[in-house]
Every structure is written in structure tokens, then in C-alpha cells.
Write a structure and sequence with these properties.
Largest sheet: 5 strands, antiparallel
Oligomer: single chain
Mean pLDDT: 82
Low-confidence stretches: 377-387, 547-552
Distance between the termini: 25 Å
Strand order of the largest sheet: 2-1-5-4-3
Strand content: 15-25%
Length: 595
């Protein structure tokens, strides 16, 4: 048998591709989830660390600001200082000067982070601790700058100034942070200023922050005008400072910028805030490392899993592929019985065993079909023609002639049509299998012709289930059984009664033919049984043909053909007495395999 199945991909390769596709999708989804999770984790962890570090740093910045504030307060809270200061404004005396200087010294005596304390007024008078080296004119300029830029008499009670050279000692190389507070009299009139200096390296040490190996940028804004009090990097542009000042006014600790994460912490005591900027570059590097690691793991997992899938699918499907190859080479004219397949699992073993059993059944069915085909074509129809040709035709045509003579033209025409159908049906050599519906139609025509011939001597009844109409049986199964009943019943009774039933009961098709003759003898039943048993032990077509010829187209011949056609699914029962006192033939066919 030529294999016309179009070339398609093997199931093993298809399953391997499906598994591989599903695996790629699963690994892809897992990778995306894993990357998203790590991205969120890295962002959350670094944001949390930045927040914590910023809050701790702002506390330390507040501490340094408070140290300068406390020093200035200690000076201004000293009553002797205030009396001496107001007295010196009218007339400077050595005693008052000494009190002022001592007060300034005492204010920072135990404060290691305070560099200098100074007091000065509009007239250019000043009192300062430490080395002093400046021009008096510059002091007046300093006072004018303070008065023009800071409204200390109205709202601000202090001013913090960012890193600058030491005003009081121009030869000093260090830079300082300063706080300036006004000295006011009882009428809130400014009569001088107190300046407290702090070395800038204290603030630099506090703001020298590193996260993920990268330094944090720190900006401290003070006052209403958001002046930059301190920044730990010279790389921060004016544009960045302006943007940060504007975007960190609102109280929101964390803000996400395209290239950075910004944490803003407001001072607990002063009008200022610290802005801590974390560059996202290290976060991006960490994510790249995560993605690279995930890609390596995914590639390794994919390679291992694909190798395992290919190995297992080949191991599983090799026996099946061999079975398929064996099946594709089979030919109805020649069956290769040897099947070289070693099943390694239960399913393959069942499939192989089922195929071998099916192959054997197919061989048996093919042989049986070949026998039946040859029997039908070489023997059956020659016997049929010899049975029909003279006797049946003469009698039927004689009956039709009588009806014509009697003027019953309509009945004669109907009989001619029925005879034509019978001859056409029985002489069609191209098919040996018909449906129950076709067989019942031929049987009705035959019984109608018999009724025309025997008239009142014949009564018949045909009952067939509609569900059985399309079931296939050998051609001329029912007619010989009915003919047999009519033939032998006419010898025994005046009125012949033939009843034919075709019904479905569960998985069985039942054909039943009843007559009211004398019944069948035990010897005849035994003879039929031996003929049927003989066909199972007979291999040659000639011997099978002889068995049918012995039985003719009557009961035994019909049963032999059914036995060949249905094999083990066929059974029969002969009863020599029934409710009509005649013979009953019951044929049962298991149709489960034929549905």
C-alpha cells in the first residue's frame, strides 16, 4: 500500500520544539519577574539606605549648627557682656573691653569645633579671639553687606554663611563656616553683631558620604532665599543648585530624577534642609550585573533542559518512530510480521502489542475478505442465476400473464417492476455488500412477487428498526431465508405465514425469520453445523465453494457466507418449533466493531 500521507514533522521533534518553546517562555517570564524584583529590591534598598544615611547626617549637621548657635547665645545671654557692650558704645574703657573679650573667650572655651568668636558694630569697633589680621575698611564693607542682604532687624535672628576664607585673619589658609547674630538693646535696636566661626573641615567630614562605592552629593540650603550654606562637591553646577533648591521645597523625602535619587531632610531646629543626591550609575551597574547573571543562568538552564528534552524525547519516541516506520511499509498484499521494537515504557509496550494484534486481525480479515470476494464472484452468482433463471422466472411471468388476462393491469405492472428490481439487484456483480435498507427493499420486492404468484396462500410481515438501516451485511442474506421458508412451508400447509424481523438490541443486530412449516429436523441442523465448522478448517477457495454449492442459496449457504463475513462476531440459532409450529432462524451479529 503506497504511503500518501504528506511529509510532516515527527511527533518527537514537535514535542521537543513545544517543550523548548514553553521552556523559553517560562524562563523569559521568570527572568523578567526576577529582573523586575531585583530592580525593585535594589531601588528600595538603596532608597532606604539613602534615607537612613541622610537623616543621620542631617542630625550631625544640626549638631554643628547648634554648636555655633549655642556659642552665640552664650555670648548674648551674658548680662555683663551686654552692659559692657552698651557702655563701650558711649565711651570705651579698658575694663569693659576686658569683660567683652573674656565673655567671648568663655563662650567657646569648651567647644573644640569652634574656631573663633567675634563681636563688632557699625562704628568699626570689634573684639575678636585668635589671630586678627585684616584691614579696617573691609570690616565696614562686611557690615554694609550684612545690612543690605539680611534683614536681621525684622525677621531673621541669625544668618549662616557658607564656606569662605577667614575674614579676621586673611593670612589663614583654612576656610570657615559662620553664624552671625545681631546684638539688640532693650528696644530691639541692633547695636552690634556676634560672629561664630567653625572650621569647614568638620562639615566636610560629616558630609563625606559614600554609598555603593560612589560619593553622595550633599547640598545644605539655609534661610528664606535658599542660600547654599554648604556643598561637598565643586562639580555641582549652578543650574543643578537652582533646580534642587526649587524641587526640594516641598516636604517629600524621596524624589526620583532620571539620573539620580534625591533625599531631602529638613532641619529640626533651623530654617534649612539637607539635600542628598545618589547617582543612579551604580544602581544601573548593579542591574546590569543582575541581568548578566540571569542571562548566564538562563542560558545554562536552557541548554541543560533542551539537552534533557532532546535526550528523553528520543529515548521515548525511538520505539514509536520504529513502529511508525514499520507501519508505513506495510502493504495489504504483503504483511511484514517481524516488528523490531523494544518497548522501554508501559505505553509503548501497549501500543506495540495492540498494533501487533491489530495487524494479525487485519491479516485475518484480509484473508477472510479475499475468500469471501472470490466465493461471491466465482460461485455465489452462478448459483444464484441457476436458481433464478428458469423456474422462478417462468412461474413469475406466468402469474403476471394471468393478471393481465384477468384485466388487473395495475397489479401486473407492479409485479413487473418488482421483478425488474429483483433481477437488477441479484445480477449486479460489482458489489457483494449492501446495507440492511437495500436488503429489505429487495426482500419487499421478492415477497411482493411471491404474493402475486401464490396470492391468498401467502401471508408475510417484515419489521425492521430504522436504526439498523445503514448497517452493512452480505448481499442476498434475507431473501434466501424467506425463500427457504416459503418453499418448505408450502408442502405442509395451505396458507404460508412468513415473519421477518430486523432489530437492534444493544450491541447486537438480530435477524429473525419465522415460518409455519413442519419445522427443521435434527439431522438437517447437524448437517448445517458441520458445514459451518468445515469452513474454519478449510483454506482453499474450491472447498469453500463446494460447501456453499452443497447448501445452495438456501439456509446453509447463507449462514456460511455470514460466517466468513463476520467471523467470531457471528452466531445463529435454529429452532424446529415456534408459535406458528414452524422453523425459526435467529442470526446474531455483534456490531460493536462495525459501528
Amino acid at each position: 500500500m503506497k504511503n500518501n500521507v504528506p511529509k510532516r514533522m515527527k511527533m518527537s521533534n514537535r514535542l521537543a520544539l513545544i517543550y523548548a518553546g514553553l521552556l523559553v517562555i517560562l524562563i523569559g517570564i521568570t527572568a523578567v519577574v526576577y529582573v523586575r524584583y531585583n530592580e525593585h529590591y535594589i531601588y528600595t534598598e538603596n532608597t532606604g539606605n539613602l534615607r537612613q544615611l541622610s537623616e543621620v547626617t542631617m542630625v550631625q549637621i544640626d549638631s554643628k549648627l547648634t554648636s555655633m548657635e549655642q556659642t552665640a547665645v552664650d555670648v548674648l545671654a551674658d548680662s555683663q557682656f551686654m552692659e559692657a557692650w552698651q557702655a563701650n558704645l558711649e565711651e570705651k574703657t579698658e575694663e569693659n573691653t576686658q569683660i567683652i573679650r573674656q565673655t567671648l573667650i568663655n563662650a567657646y572655651k569648651n567647644k573644640s569645633d569652634i574656631r573663633r568668636v567675634a563681636a563688632f558694630d557699625d562704628a568699626g569697633n570689634y573684639y575678636c579671639t585668635g589671630i586678627v589680621n585684616f584691614e579696617e575698611e573691609s570690616l565696614k564693607e562686611k557690615i554694609r553687606y550684612i545690612q543690605e542682604n539680611y534683614q536681621l532687624n525684622m525677621q531673621n535672628t541669625r544668618v549662616f554663611q557658607g564656606p569662605s576664607p577667614d575674614f579676621w585673619n586673611v593670612e589663614s589658609e583654612g576656610r570657615v563656616l559662620s553664624e552671625i547674630k545681631p546684638i539688640k538693646n532693650s528696644t530691639a535696636e541692633i547695636i552690634g553683631y556676634v560672629e561664630v566661626q567653625q572650621n569647614v573641615f568638620y562639615m566636610e567630614e560629616i558630609c563625606n558620604l559614600v554609598q555603593n562605592g560612589y560619593p553622595l552629593k550633599v547640598i545644605v540650603f539655609m534661610g528664606d532665599e535658599d542660600e547654599v550654606f554648604f556643598q561637598n562637591s565643586e562639580d555641582i553646577s549652578e543650574e543643578t543648585l537652582s533646580e534642587m533648591a526649587q524641587r526640594t521645597k516641598e516636604y517629600s523625602k524621596i524624589k526620583d530624577f532620571p539620573d539620580s535619587i534625591v533625599c531631602t531632610v529638613f532641619s529640626n531646629y533651623y530654617q534649612g534642609r539637607g539635600v542628598f543626591i545618589l547617582d543612579k550609575t551604580p544602581l544601573h551597574q548593579m542591574m546590569r550585573q543582575v541581568i548578566q547573571g540571569m542571562l548566564i543562568v538562563a542560558a545554562a538552564l536552557l541548554a541543560l533542559t533542551l539537552g534533557f528534552i532532546i535526550l528523553m524525547t528520543r529515548r521515548i519516541f525511538t520505539p514509536i518512530n520504529r513502529l511508525v516506520d514499520h507501519m508505513s511499509k506495510q502493504d495489504l498484499s504483503h504483511f511484514e510480521s517481524k516488528l523490531d521494537v523494544k518497548a522501554k515504557d508501559y505505553e509503548t509496550a501497549v501500543l506495540t502489542q495492540t498494533y501487533e494484534e491489530m495487524l494479525q486481525r487485519l491479516k485475518d480479515a484480509s484473508e477472510r475478505q479475499e475468500k469471501l470476494k472470490n466465493v461471491q464472484t466465482k460461485t455465489l452468482f452462478s448459483i444464484l442465476q441457476s436458481e433464478i433463471s428458469p423456474h422462478f422466472l417462468y412461474n413469475t411471468l406466468g402469474g403476471i400473464a394471468n393478471m393481465c388476462e384477468e384485466g388487473n393491469a395495475e397489479a401486473a405492472a407492479e409485479a413487473c417492476y418488482d421483478l425488474s428490481d429483483i433481477l437488477r439487484y441479484s445480477s449486479d456483480y460489482t458489489t457483494s455488500e449492501v446495507t440492511v435498507q437495500e436488503e429489505i427493499r429487495n426482500l419487499n420486492a421478492y415477497m411482493s412477487v411471491m404474493k402475486t404468484r401464490y396470492r391468498q396462500r401467502l401471508e408475510y410481515e417484515i419489521i425492521a428498526d430504522e436504526e439498523a438501516s445503514y448497517f452493512v451485511i452480505p448481499k442476498l442474506t434475507l431473501q434466501p431465508l424467506a425463500e427457504n421458508g416459503i418453499k418448505y412451508s408450502l408442502l405442509e400447509t395451505e396458507v404460508v405465514v412468513i415473519k421477518i424481523y430486523v432489530v437492534l438490541v444493544g450491541d447486537e443486530l438480530i435477524l429473525e425469520v419465522k415460518d409455519n412449516g413442519c419445522g427443521i429436523s435434527e439431522e438437517a441442523v447437524e448437517t448445517i453445523r458441520k458445514r459451518l465448522d468445515g469452513i474454519h478448517d478449510t483454506e482453499s477457495l474450491e472447498q469453500i465453494s463446494d460447501q456453499i454449492q452443497i447448501g445452495g442459496m438456501g439456509l446453509s449457504g447463507t449462514l456460511i457466507r455470514l460466517a466468513i463475513f463476520f467471523g467470531e462476531n457471528f452466531s445463529y440459532q435454529l429452532t424446529n418449533s415456534n408459535d406458528e409450529d414452524g422453523t425459526t432462524i435467529v442470526i446474531k451479529i455483534h456490531i460493536r466493531d462495525y459501528r
